[in-house]
């Protein structure tokens, strides 16, 4: 399978317009340009390959169905896809957790070993490198809060327990951390 | 929940640490807080950048499978406006009715704007009913139903497409209006009955719409006509004859100079001047 090189971000908007008119070829291009990021975040949150494939497929089918709803004033196409993907992955993690909560209640929440699965090839990419560099600049507390929440789908309470901070501090840490990231990544981030 | 509880929650909302209730409050807060709306766009951009650190190539079979499924999946054609209205309006009506007239849920900074506490909630309900913005994840059942209705009625394909395009344009316009930083909603009620009218407007976007619900049925050969009133001086602002008891009417630019918006019953085709008394009037805020 030959994958097309990722398109520059700004070219995704016209592509999205084509998709909204039912252009399947444009959709395939959109998939090729965005699927590493979408699959990556879903897999990272879910930690389960089969489920990640399932959710990624759901996301793309939704993107196809609801393409007309994309609104470029609300952010980039990749941000739109990422929002859908992340939310779906989190929803699935949470509902699975609710199901198993009773069995897990006697386990204290400790560090959750989520070191990357070595069988997964995380795609090296410029943006990823820049973001990792920017993440490294955050304070320990900010970085941990962002990572637990965004990548592991932890709730505010769970993050507060890990960090040993009051509940309200979690939101502040996340906001401060992400705003700092934003500043460091500048306008080029997507 | 007061405004200050939700304000600045955009990042927490995006990463997913808000409780469902907090997330709901934040979505409502977005309606009136341009700062949070902007911050939300930023937060989504940063979140998307975060995802690039874990980018992972999916297996080729996933591509094949996705492309196969979408080739057999119909796309949502935005619902014809007339069919989409009832859902929108029932949400408006429900919210308007269920919200206490006390201002407990209303943001102080807007209080001077409207004597009716529910106006902002009404605007929020309009947004919710539209499943507004590209961000909505849920398919709108209404849109699907509307399409099915259109299909069942075996509408001429071109006509249906034109309707859909017109509806899409209208929805774009509404979405655009509702996402404006300065969007305002103000309601008026008829002295009798459940009839209500809400004007939703944004100076920035130069867009104003009138949302009317529980309109009395029109006699044969009559239409409703909206007017922008400057003092006692009416200017025609559009005629409409809804299928049901609800209507969404785009108002003219004059709304921004007007003191109030009124609706009367007129002969088909509309009138130059009102020939009947208004069935309701919405007082616009002082500028
Ligand atoms: Zn705010």
Summarize the structure.
With 190 residues, chain A is mainly α. Chain A is built from eight helices and no strands.
Care to describe what's here?
The complex is a heterodimer of chains A (190) and B (287). Chain A is mainly α and 190 residues long. In chain A, 67% of the residues lie in helices and 0% in strands. Chain A folds into 2 domains: 9-110, RNA polymerase sigma factor, region 2, helix turn helix motif (Rna Polymerase Sigma Factor, Chain: A, Orthogonal Bundle); 118-189, Arc Repressor Mutant, subunit A. Chain A has helices at 12-20, 24-46, 49-65, 77-104, 126-136, 140-151, 156-163, 167-185. In chain A, α3 crosses α4 (77-104) and α5 packs across α8 (167-185). The radius of gyration of chain A is 18 Å and the shape is globular. The relative contact order of chain A is 0.10. By secondary structure, chain B is α+β, with helices and mostly antiparallel strands. Chain B folds into 2 domains: 3-54, no CATH class; 82-287, no CATH class. Chain B has 9 helices and 8 strands. Chain B has helices spanning 3-6, 10-15, 20-32, 34-51, 60-71, 81-98, 119-130, 141-152, 157-178, and strands at 184-189, 196-202, 207-213, 222-230, 233-240, 247-250, 260-267, 280-283. In chain B, β1 and β2 (196-202) form a beta hairpin. The radius of gyration of chain B is 21 Å and the shape is elongated. Chains A and B meet through α2, α3, α4, α5 and α6 of A and α2, α4, α5 and α9 of B. Bound molecules: zinc ion.
